[in-house]
Amino acid sequence: MENGETAERDVVNASVASHCLLCVFSGVFVPIVLGSLPPALPWHVSCPMRCVCQIKPWFSPDSVYHEAPTVDCSDLLLTKLPLPIPPNTHTLRLQRNLMSVLDTALLHGLHNLTDLDLSQNRFSSVRTITQSYTLSSLLSLHLEENHLSHLPEASFSSLPALQELFLSHNNIHSIAPGAFGGLDSLLRLHINNNRLNTVDPRWFRSLPRLEVLMLGGNPVESLPERGFVALKSLRSLVLGGMGLRGVAEKALEGLEGLESLSFYDNLLSKVPSQALRRVPGLKFLDLNKNHIKLVDTGDFQNMAHLKELGLNNMEELVSIEKSGLENLPELTKLEITNNPRLSYIHPQAFVQLSRLESLMLNSNSLSTLHQNIMLSLPSLQEVSLHSNPLRCDCLFHWAAKDKSHPYIDKVMGKDVQTARLVRFIQPQATLCSEPPELRARRVREVSTGEMSASCLPSIPVSSLPSYVGVQEGGKLVLHCRALADPQPELYWVTPSGLKLGPSQSQSSKSSSAPALCKNVTTSEASRHTSFSSVHVQHAKNHTSCHSLKNYQLLPEGTLEISKITPRDAGLYTCVAENVLGADTRSVTVGVHSRGKYRKKGVATKQKKFQAIRIDARLELQEVGEHYAILSWQSRHNLPSTRLSWQALYPNTHAPTYTTHILAGTQSFNLTHLQGETFYRVCLHLGISQGAKHINRRSRDSRKPQCISFRTKDDQEFQPTLQLNPQMTSTAVTLLLLALILLLAAQGWDTEPREGEVKHHNTLQYDIKGPQTVIINQKTKINYNNQPNQSEKLVLHQIC
């Protein structure tokens, strides 16, 4: 059991050291110095039985080197002090024994005793250690991994010269307000990994010289305001593993000299930016292993002395927003690694980081690192991107083998792009995941000619879970992000089919605003990538403003729903769209009633899906010579809707063409049709990929809605097609065959592609502005391929 506790302590200490928590102190460099020092020397004295007496190197808390006469009596199962102890003993090591009482009278005569290690024994009270006799020369006392539970008043008053006190890994649950009275010289206090559930500012009033305070590992959920104000000399504060859910604005007030701060392994859901602004001299900040979802605009702003920042091992981090790190003039190292959902870093996330040299971004879910980021970091020397699903396309041209890494110099008030070399860390493991033809290729071995010149939108799978449960009356936040060139616009479709898009006005400077209850067409929608309020688009859908007041659409595509109700449950779809194409991602939201178990919430989710039936009726709104406007209405968000159509020729089997319909669309303008021709059009209403629990019978019952119609007479060809009433039926047949051959010569290829269903050639479509869809013949629906200009059919989509 003790070995397990020792291993746990070693892991905690190693993690703390690895994050530069104490690197502002010269004590961190002691192992390096010791490596160059001579080994321990024999000390020829009368040594206690079974103990080892040697002259060993030793550093004081203020980093002064000594050759210390050392008596090592560790691991001997001792229950009391061994005798005789040499009178000029400097360091006495008694760890890993069975001692519960210490005869301080025997230590009182050791006038040179400086370092006493009593860790991993059975002491349950500090009075048994510090009673009656004063140890005036003792500088360092180790009491880790004992059975201490309470520190009474003036617990260490007999140790006036003490500079280091180690009390970690005990069972301390209470500390008297004046427990540390008399420790005016104390520099380092370790009380981490105990059972304290609060922090009392009175503890620190007697510690004017304290430089290092380790409080981590205590179950403290919140810090008091001005709790550390008495620690004017504090330079390093470790608050890791405490269960902190938030940090009050004034919690760190008074720590003007603080240089190193750790919030490692807490429950913080956002960066405590207000509290951090109270620590102007901070140099090293550790926020690793928290529940932070976004690094928002201004979270790290104007921290003038920050040198190193850690944002690693966060399960829920999805995005680094615009100006998330801004004006950090001394930042040299930035670590954002091992975040499995981090898929988006805004092109302008890093602003005025003039000295950043090392950028660690490995082991995330990033598909790219935008070129604008490289342009904004003039001092960058190395970047780590391995173990990411990198998409080697137009946004990644800067990383190709035939491209140098640029940055922007400010010369005479102008932006001047200059070439420089940035080193890839582990280039052999920095591989392309997309497109398929470049998969598993090393990024540095791919040329710009092999990468596409433009980028279709792509919403990373990791950005949205398949299911989210929320308590009734609570707040739901859904984050959706996408990068492309041109930059895509993001909008959401609610379970009722409402389309929540960008605001038409950019006049508002607020970060969010309630949904606008207004009927609009797609042509009216403003096409901005950054928007401040919600724009609602719906066709023939009578929804009251009351049902929309709780929706908010934040910049970059975050949807917030406040005071959520069971009516808000269902399927939400995020759509990222630019002129080249679109991508979608859906999430199912379950609303749990108060006081009910989560299991019932899941059942509600299943019920919602089972209620989704074919409730849309396909209708023909208008038909012309070469077009037909079709419409349908649905009470549900069905993101996998498809539309298929086929010309009906006598004695001839024409190909069937198919296109996907973006979520929220309820009207479609089918163009490039043939005049005087019968067509059959079918609407296929699909279900979400997340609704896997729907049974096969329910799936099979989803029959498409179909209609047939005939296009109007083709006036353009009417003079040449006038027939003599005496023309025989054979001549009519020949003429129809000639017309079919003419159409075939114009590019209508009826051969099905290999691997596709017979008589069904699917088409790729890409969004071209608010109303236009580009259809490529003989191409499977795939947003990762660029359309061939010679094969485009133009369709108009009305949302």
From TrEMBL:
Pfam families in UniProt: Ig_3, LRR_8
Domain Ig-like: 457-588
Swiss-Prot/TrEMBL keywords: Disulfide bond, Glycoprotein, Leucine-rich repeat, Repeat, Signal
InterPro entries noted in UniProt: Ig-like_dom (IPR007110), Ig-like_dom_sf (IPR036179), Ig-like_fold (IPR013783), Ig_sub (IPR003599), Ig_sub2 (IPR003598), Leu-rich_rpt (IPR001611), Leu-rich_rpt_typical-subtyp (IPR003591), LRR_dom_sf (IPR032675)
Domain of life: Eukaryota
GO CC annotations on file: plasma membrane
Keyword Cell membrane: no
PANTHER family: ANTIGEN BSP, PUTATIVE-RELATED, CHAOPTIN-RELATED
Protein name: (Atlantic silverside) hypothetical protein
